[in-house]
Structure formats: structure tokens, C-alpha cells
Amino acid sequence: MPNDQLKEAIEVTNSELVIPPHTNHIGTIFGGRVLELMDMTGAMAAMRFAGEDVVTASMDAVDFKKPIQLGDMIELKAKVIHTARTSMVVKVDLFRLAHADSQKDFSCRGYLVFVAITCDGNPKEVPTLKLVTDDDNKFWAIGERIKQRAKERRIRDADD
Amino acid sequence: MPNDQLKEAIEVTNSELVIPPHTNHIGTIFGGRVLELMDMTGAMAAMRFAGEDVVTASMDAVDFKKPIQLGDMIELKAKVIHTARTSMVVKVDLFRLAHADSQKDFSCRGYLVFVAITCDGNPKEVPTLKLVTDDDNKFWAIGERIKQRAKERRIRDADD
Amino acid sequence: MPNDQLKEAIEVTNSELVIPPHTNHIGTIFGGRVLELMDMTGAMAAMRFAGEDVVTASMDAVDFKKPIQLGDMIELKAKVIHTARTSMVVKVDLFRLAHADSQKDFSCRGYLVFVAITCDGNPKEVPTLKLVTDDDNKFWAIGERIKQRAKERRIRDADD
Amino acid sequence: MPNDQLKEAIEVTNSELVIPPHTNHIGTIFGGRVLELMDMTGAMAAMRFAGEDVVTASMDAVDFKKPIQLGDMIELKAKVIHTARTSMVVKVDLFRLAHADSQKDFSCRGYLVFVAITCDGNPKEVPTLKLVTDDDNKFWAIGERIKQRAKERRIRDADD
Amino acid sequence: MPNDQLKEAIEVTNSELVIPPHTNHIGTIFGGRVLELMDMTGAMAAMRFAGEDVVTASMDAVDFKKPIQLGDMIELKAKVIHTARTSMVVKVDLFRLAHADSQKDFSCRGYLVFVAITCDGNPKEVPTLKLVTDDDNKFWAIGERIKQRAKERRIRDADD
Amino acid sequence: MPNDQLKEAIEVTNSELVIPPHTNHIGTIFGGRVLELMDMTGAMAAMRFAGEDVVTASMDAVDFKKPIQLGDMIELKAKVIHTARTSMVVKVDLFRLAHADSQKDFSCRGYLVFVAITCDGNPKEVPTLKLVTDDDNKFWAIGERIKQRAKERRIRDADD
Description:
The structure is a homohexamer of 160-residue chains.
Chain A (H helix, E strand, L loop, with lengths): L5 E2 L4 E6 L13 H20 L2 E7 L2 E2 L9 E11 L3 E11 L7 E13 L10 E2 L4 H26 L1
Parallel strand pairs in A: 1-8
Antiparallel strand pairs in A: 2-5, 3-7, 5-6, 6-7
């Protein structure tokens, strides 16, 4: 699949009911479980875009708003927003639906970088993201910053 | 929430990557795991429609087409298609996305009946489904047959 | 293993304690979890009869009686009741034992069709069920109807 | 439930298919997973005998024979063999059924001591085991030794 | 527990064997599973420092080095490095031990912010971290930057 | 790796938060779950010592003290204490940290025997444990008794 192939991104939706195995002893979902769901949903968006298996290269900072409770529903929406030669930046939004009403609250957003790989684990080229709307352009720029921050972290870590 | 309240149904989407815990020793997903995902996604569609907790009352027959493999993606779409006083019929469609390409194959369909309940477990009235499109009317009629078949099973079982 | 080999069926028993990972936020077991247990126990009955790996081809309708609670015990009993060239119909009965007393309540029954497969996934012939008791003959007839209903569903679905 | 109530023990059977979540990276079931299944099945036998919740007080030594593989079936049989005022000794036998044939191999045996408890966690009296067969008497004597060994361990540990 | 109480931090160690339920279909651990382990180990370090339950407020960016394989061992080390009135910054280091040799490779580092809470979910004061070594001072400064970056993200998000 | 290679043992530490999936319906951890954690932690200590995969050969008797509750933390410490040609005895200590305070209570101790294996499942020689401290010598002697008891059980079982 050549890198100059242009392709639109498909949004992947994932819904989860917060059940006892996802929660701690005080009835709220673990932050780590939320991060796992964001990674899993993001990986599916990247796999569907690349048509290949992917591995997670990095996760940008995530801030948790008010806690999600046992019995709530979660909706995750993931979409590729930026592409490089073998990597993709995926935005994942998480919404909370308190079960007693159907109102959907924005809960948190994460940006993950995935690398497409061949079956023997080597990086593989991905299509280039086709930008259609204004939002596509706005998020491409955010994706650029995500990549830039990751690069700065590599330099900072080498200095440690 | 009075029964004469009319309400449109929201489709709930759920995506899953088929990973080792979902598969048997020959690398295909368990039929039972598929049924569990259909029940869980259907329950969320019913909960969002009723604005209440729900319990599964019955699952209509399900036929599995060709096996879903480790590494495939699954997409489930669930929607309330029929309502009675305290119960809802939910249709759940399951699609398979073989990971090497982005083609979506219809895999199987299930119809589940859920009952809305109060926090102490008693049945609770649900809104009446608002029918908008021709499809809504077609699936309402299917929902009627699902309920009719469930009634016939109760009579048949009482005869056993 | 030739198809004209006659073989009696062995009943497979499975017991489960209903613990938090199996239940929802209101303390009752998920319908989907029950279906998964029925499929798993049924698959073991089919594997022991066929002496081969199996895949689930279909599950007939299941009706859930009163909810099973956290702390209850479940007993499942599965047995092959009908055989064709490569497929088996398995009956699975689920009983509930409320933990405070030893009384066993019938909870629900399911009929599943399994197909025996070779290690590369192709259908494989199974022995023919040997009918010994009156009950064996009664359930063979029920198995015939299960297969007949599955055939009617295939025709109905092709019409959709 | 008075201690002088005599009661026969019911054997609890549990069947499990060895699937990827139960196995390590070399395709054999974890010893710890086997111990967990033995404890769980034993607990159900004790709960059914006592008609109460139970907690595990001790597990006698267990020796594992040849490894159980992915795709094998396991059958566990648990039965109360000895009772004291609030405690029960349960014998749990584990058999392995290699999936390609229906032969059942004895794999290992464990003896567990369970204590019946009230809902607030205090020990509660259990019925006295009714001994009917020669085997019942033989295993009662083994149960005595299990309790004796546990008592010796307490003395030995206090000396450490 | 007054905020002016000075307390040294205890390092919490967690070891995990990478088994099939943690890995994807290509035999490497999920990034999301790694994040979950980091959050869980970090939460235990925060709980032991605060003597209270905690919730995750944010996770700073994490970069994954070369993939961790099925059969590898993971070692996580978590320690509180900074405290404010009700929140703690925890550093979590993850090491990989390829199972064929005992060499320990640094794999990735994460910084999480946890908030101590009362049983009804309100923030609760935590002791102040006692700084003893040069490293304690170095990491306190890093903790300051972690908090500063979280504050900047809140401003940035409000602008979106 | 020749048997006459002398090697010191490394202690492996594992920490777990007791969450709903680990507990029964009365909020205490399952004895079987504790045994599973002890086996898993012990296996990692044996793998790190042998530099090879291992299988569990036996578990010596374990006595559970007062129950561990939902929300408690567990700390396990495992170390090889005795070696033979292909087998190792591992001591595993389990401590409980009630979450409201940082006090660590000794909860139970187990001794497990592991055998190192090649990738095709055959036993493989392990290094000989280097004894450095008085405690090393004391626990080597205990390891001898563990092995002796296992040998006596084999004779006893053959007599049954």
C-alpha cells in the first residue's frame, strides 16, 4: 500500500456498560481501565485505516473529569487525524451516559500514536489521510503538535 | 415515565477486537462469546431507550455464519424495534471486519426481549416507540412476531 | 470415524458460583453470561460425543425465568440429543440453587447445534446417536424440529 | 441448623474447557488456575452441604501429574468427607480429558477445609455428615488426618 | 490527617507474567494493558502514602519502547514524588525481563496524579512528602512540572 | 546451563489491590484466587532463577488466616530456597495491607515446587542455589523437608 494513496478516516464507535469487573471497591471505574478502552478503540480505528495490525507507540496526557460510576454507560469515538509514513495519530473521545437519563457528557479525550506493522513486526507504510472538512485540517494541526511533543519528550528523556 | 410517551430509538454501536481471551484453542471466537456481546449491546440500547435498568427476558434463535477469527474486528449495532408496556424488542446485527481489509461482512442477527426494571427489581413502564420510517414499521412487525413466538414457546413449554 | 458408528451420549455437568464478574450493577447475572455458559457446556458435550473440536452453528430461542442472583449457584447439564452427518443438537438445562437452601430450580433450557471440525476447520463426520430409552426417542424428535426450524430460518432470511 | 442434624453429602461436578485465558505462553494450564478451580468447586460442595456461605480455611498439599493442555477438558468432582462443629473437609478430584479421545485420566486430588459463616462473617454450625458406605468411612478417616495435619502445622508455625 | 504531617514514600513493586489474556493476536502486550498496570500500581503507591482511597486525576504522556512479548516478565515500581493538599504525583517505571535471560530493561515511565478521597467521594488532605535524598528533590521538581503541564492543559482545553 | 553453576536467588515482589473480580459475593477474596497469586508469583521467582520456563509440580499445604477484604492490598514475596537437578522449591509469603492504614500483616505462606522445562516441555537442569546467609541455610533445610514430604505423598498415593 503506497504512502501516496489518499484515504478518508472512518470513526470507530465503542460502547461499554460499566460493570463490577471494571470498577474498584468504591464503585467507580479505574482510570487504567478507561485508558485501556481508549487504547483498544484507538487501535481499531488505526487498524481499519491502515488495513494492517498496529502497535501503540505513545499516549499523550489524559485528564479525567468527574468519576464514572458502576451502571453508567461509556461511549468511545476514535478517528485517525494525522498520518506520517508508518504512523497514525488517533483522537479518542470518551462520553459518559449516566444510566438514569440519556444525556451524553463529554468525559475525556486522548491522542494516541500507532505504528502499522507487518506480521513479523516491522513498520509498514500507511495511506495518507485525506483532509475534507475544516475540522480535518484543525485536527491534522493538533496531530502535528502531538508528534512534536513526542519528539520533544524523546530529546528530554535522552537528557535525563 | 408514562407509557403514552412517544420516543425514537437510538442505535448503539459496539466494536470489539477479537483477542485471545475471546477465542478457543483453534483461534475462532466462541459462539457463546458472540451471544454475550449481542446481549450486552442490546441491553445498552434498551437502557438508553427506557432510561432504566433492564433484564434480559428472552433471546430469539441465532444462526452463526462462517467463523470469526482471532485478529478480526466485530461491529455490533443494536436498536429497539418494538415496545410493549414494560418490555422492548431489540434487534442486534453483528458484522465482521477481517483485519487485512476494511470490508464489512454481515455475520448474524439476534432479537432480544428486555424488561425495564426499578432498582428493587420490579417491571417498569417504558416509552412507546415512535415509528418514523418504512423500516421502523417493517421491524415493528418483526418485533410483533418475536413476541408472538415467545408466547407460543411459553404455551409449548407448559405442555411439556 | 464412520457415520454408521452408533454411540451413546454422555451428560456433561457444569457448576458455577455466581460471583461479581458475572453480574451487573444490580446484582443479577447477565443474560449473555448465561448464554455463554450454555454454549460452553454444550460444546463440551458435543466434543466428548464427537471426539473432535466443534463450532457453534446455531442457538435456538432461550427464555429466562426469574433472575439469578449474586451468590446463587448454577448447575448446567448438557447432552447430545440428535445427530446428522457432521452436526449434533445438544440440549442444555440450567438449574439455579439459591445459596441459602439446597433446592434446585429449573431455570431455562437451550438447544444448540454444533458442527464437528478437523484441525483445519473443515466439517467432520460424527458417530450416530444410539437411542436407548423412551426419553432418547422423545428428544431425538425435538432435535429434528430444532433442525427443521433452523432450515426454515435460512429460507426466511434468504427472503428478507 | 443444629450440629446433630445428620445429612448426606452431594457430589458437585464442574467441567471446564481449557481455553487461552487459562494457559501460559507454552500452552499448558497454570498450576494456580487448577488450584483456583479446585477451591471453587470445593466451596460449592461445602455451600450445598452447609446451606450457608463458606470461607476456605486451608488447602492440603497438591501434586500435579503430567501437564494439562490448551483444548483439553477438565472434570472436577467435589464432596464433603468430614465435618466438625463449623468446618467441613472437602475432597476434590480433577480428571483430564484429552480432547481427541473420550478417555478420562485422574490428574490430581486436593483436600480443602471450609468454614461455614453467617452473613456477618462469624462461624456457623454445620450438619454432621451421615456415613452410609464403606467409602464414606474410609474418607472420614482421611478427613480426620487432614484436620490433624492442619493442627500440627499450626503448632509447627508457632514454633518458627 | 493534617497536611503538615511529613511522611516518606514507600516504593510499591508489582510483577506480572505476560500471559495470553494480556496480549493481542500477534503476541505482544496491548499498550492499553500496560497503561492499566501503571495506573493500578501507581494507585497502590498513592493509597499506601495517603492511607486513603484514591482516584486517578490525570496521566501524563507515555512513550512505549520496543514491544513486550508473550512470556516476558514485567516489573513495575511506583512511588509518590510530589504532594499537594489532596493530590499526589506518582512516578511509575516499567521494566521488561525477557524470560530467556534475567536482564532487566527499562521500558517506559509514567507520571500519574491521584486524589485522595473519603468514602463518600470527597477530596481528603494527604500528608506532605518528606524529601530525604537528592533524588527526592529532583523528582519533586519533576512533579511540579507535571502539575504545571496539567494546569496548562486545562487552560488549553478551555480555549478549544 | 550446568547444574554446578552457583547462583543467588532474587526475591520477586507482587502487589495486588483486591477488586470485585477477585472477591465473592460477601466481599472477601477467594482462597483459590490467593493460591493462584501465590503460584503466579512463585513461578516468576523460579523463571528468573532458572532463566527458563517452568511448570508447577506441587504445592505444599496452605493455611489461611483471617479473611482479606475488598479494598485491601496484598503483597507477595517469592524466592527460590532449594534446588535439585531440574526442580526448585519456592517460598511465597503473602501480606495483607488493610487499606485504611499502612500496617503490613503476615497472612499466609506457601511452598511450591517448580520444574524448569525446555520449549518442547522436557525437564531442564537449573543452577544450584548459592547459600549466603544463615536464613538461606535454614530455608534450604525446610526445602529439603518439602521435597521429602512430596516423596512421602507419592508413596502414600501409590498405596491407595
